[in-house]
Structures are given as C-alpha cells and as structure tokens.
C-alpha cells in the first residue's frame, strides 16, 4: 500500500490513478481529515476524470448526485455517470437507468432507462437485473411480460439481491410467469428473509397460515 506522500507525488505528476486514490483516501480513508476536505477530493477526482479515469468519473458524478462538497446538480451528475457508463461502469449504468425511470432531476425517459438497465443487466449487475425485471412485470417502458420478469428476477436472485428474491417469491406465489408453487415461493421468501427483508418474513407467515388451514380442511374431510 502506497503512502499518502507517494500518492501526492504521483498525482502531481499527472497520474490519474494516483489522483483518484488520493481523493478516495481524503474522503473515505481511515485517517481522513475531519471535516472531510471535499474541495481537495473534488479537484483530484476532476483531474483524474478529465484524464480518463472511469472510477473518478463515477465518484465525481456521485458528488453532484448527492451534494457532496458541491450543490446537488443531477444533470451534471448524469453527464459524469454517462461518461463512466460508456466505458463499462455498471453502477453508473444503473444510476442512469434509475434517474431516467424516476425523473429525478431530468425528464422521465423510459427509452434511455431501458437502454442503460438492459446494458448493465446483461453485464451481470444484480440491481439492474432486478429493476429490469420489475419493468417487465409492471409494463414500464415495455409491454408486460411475466416470463421475462421472472428471468431477470432469477438472475438477480442468484446474484444475491434480496429484493429480487422477494419478487421471485411473489411470482411463484401468484403464478406470474411460472407455475404457482408454495414450495418455491417459500424457498425464495426464506432467502430474502435471511437478508432482513421484512416483507418476505410476512409472506412466510401468510404461507404458514395458509398451509395450516389447508391441512385442517383436509383433516376435516377425512373425518367426515
């Protein structure tokens, strides 16, 4: 691990990676200054971003997106996200898709939303896979397609996304895009619940009640 002094020397010499890492150390490092020197970090990330450093582009966009060290400016954030996304940064792609879906700081644009979500989802980003599944399930920007929704939910669920696991459980519960199955509904609800999803815990309770009721009704029929 390089010392801060070494990073400073490399950054001054125009090394984009050193500029990014030094800015990161100023903002998130264990020995960062209190309060955080956002002006210094932003200057370093801007230099690195202008020198083509993809993560610096993303973090600079995040600063404008969240108002870290600068007034919140979503259009500027999206410009930096897009530069990072064009070079393959998955979270930047997801953030673009999310912003265009919500109309957060920019007009809603489902075409651009789908472009970025699909690109990130195909590259393996679980957040984008889950949100793309939701678009197909709800018909946002695309015709309703439950089978496609399940496909994307499943990919995100296998990637560990708890919301996708919950949504997949709901699909098995209701039969949206798959054959209804209490077994598989419970399977995915339990995995979401293990990650702290409260809705999944509630669904498990409801399934348990339904299974108990069904068992009681079967017993009554047998007795008669």
Written description of the protein model:
- There is one protein chain.
- Helix content is 74%, strand content 0%.
- It is mainly alpha-helical.
- It folds into 2 domains: 1-123, Alpha Horseshoe (Serine Threonine Protein Phosphatase 5, Tetratricopeptide repeat); 126-224, Tetratricopeptide repeat domain (Serine Threonine Protein Phosphatase 5, Tetratricopeptide repeat), CATH 1.25.40.10.
- Helix 3 packs across helix 4 and helix 8 runs antiparallel to helix 9.
- The longest helix is centred in the C-terminal third of the chain and has 26 residues, at 198-223.
- The protein starts with a helix and ends with a helix.
- The relative contact order is 0.06.
- The model has no long low-confidence stretch (mean pLDDT 93).
Quick recap of the structure?
This protein has about 220 residues and is mainly alpha-helical.
Largest sheet: none
Fraction of residues in β-strands? under 5%
User: CATH class of the largest domain, anyone?
Assistant: Mainly Alpha
How are helices and strands ordered from N to C?
A: HHHHHHHHHHHH
Tally of DSSP helical segments: 12
> How many whole angstroms does the radius of gyration measure?
23 Å
Quaternary organization: single chain
């Amino acid at each position: 691990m390089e010392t801060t002094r070494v990073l400073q020397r490399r950054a001054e010499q125009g090394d984009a990676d050193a500029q990014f890492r030094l800015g990161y150390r100023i903002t998130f490092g264990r020995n960062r200054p209190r309060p955080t020197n956002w002006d210094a970090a932003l200057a370093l990330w801007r230099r690195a971003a202008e020198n083509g450093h993809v993560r610096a582009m993303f973090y600079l966009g995040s600063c404008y997106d969240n108002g870290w060290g600068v007034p919140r400016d979503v259009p500027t954030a999206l410009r930096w996200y897009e530069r990072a996304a064009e070079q393959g940064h998955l979270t930047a792609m997801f953030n673009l898709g999310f912003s265009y879906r919500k109309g957060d700081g920019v007009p809603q644009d489902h075409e651009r939303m789908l472009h970025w979500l699909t690109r990130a989802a195909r590259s393996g980003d679980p957040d984008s896979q889950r949100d793309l599944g939701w678009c197909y399930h709800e018909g946002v920007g695309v015709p309703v397609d439950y089978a496609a929704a399940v496909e994307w939910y499943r990919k995100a669920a296998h990637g560990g996304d708890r919301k996708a696991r919950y949504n997949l459980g709901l699909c098995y519960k209701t039969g949206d895009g798959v054959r209804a199955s209490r077994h598989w509904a419970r399977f995915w609800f339990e995995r979401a619940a293990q990650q702290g999803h409260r809705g999944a815990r509630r669904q498990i309770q409801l399934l348990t009640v339904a299974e108990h009721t069904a068992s009681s009704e079967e017993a009554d029929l047998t007795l008669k």
